[in-house]
Amino acid sequence: MPYNISELKRTLRGVKRLEIQLRFGGNTKAATGRLVWDRFFKLKPKSNAKYHLKDLVGLGRDEFKEILDEYYYFVYFQIYQERGLSIDSMFDPNLLSLLGLGPFASEIDIKKRFRTLAKKYHPDMGGDGEKFIDLVNAYDQLTGG
Predict the structure, then answer these.
(1) Alpha helix locations (H) across 89-128?
(2) According to CATH, where is 1.10.287.110 located in the chain?
(3) The pTM is what?
């Protein structure tokens, strides 16, 4: 069952408040311009957010839950980084997205995807050298190589 607009707005505002509470202890002034929420969700039509209100309205609850899972992965990754905690079991979601992988990708998924993209972008195979270098750098950072 898809969300209606008012229910979705209320839910997204609650998600935003939760991030502010988790990361900034509820201090909205400290949170200004630094929220993961701002990169993910926008309630206004013209923005560069990953998910716009009009796209979320038609989603079912399971699809919306997957988006929230991805969002909270980014939030907790940010919290770990900001607090200098060990994030050995977590991969940088921005690097994973360069490989076209979701936030819950395993090391095996990363290796498989790297091999596929390396064949595609390798300069000796007619690929784009700059993209290949970016791919190798991302893979090295993800695998600690």
Answers:
(1) 93-98, 107-121
(2) 93-143
(3) 0.64
Sorted by sequence, the CB contacts under 8 Å of residue 119 that are 6+ apart come out as: 125
Cα–Cα nearest to 77, from 105, 116, 53 = 105
The rounded distance, in Å, linking the Cα atoms of 10 and 51 is: 16
Q: Which residues of 45-75 are buried (b: 16+ CB within 10 A; e: fewer)?
A: eeeeeebbbeebeebeeeebeebeebbbbbb
State both tokens at 85: 């905690």
CATH number for the domain running over 93-143: 1.10.287.110
pLDDT tens sequence across 71-111 = 998 898 888 888 776 655 578 888 888 888 877 788 888 99
**Residues 139, 145: Cα–Cα separation, whole Å:** 8
At residue 71, the pLDDT reads 92
Which residue type does 94 have?
N
pLDDT higher than 80, residue 116: yes
**Average pLDDT over all residues of the chain:** 85
* Residue 86, amino acid: S
Please provide residue 29's backbone torsions phi and psi, each rounded to the nearest 5 degrees. Answer: -70, -40
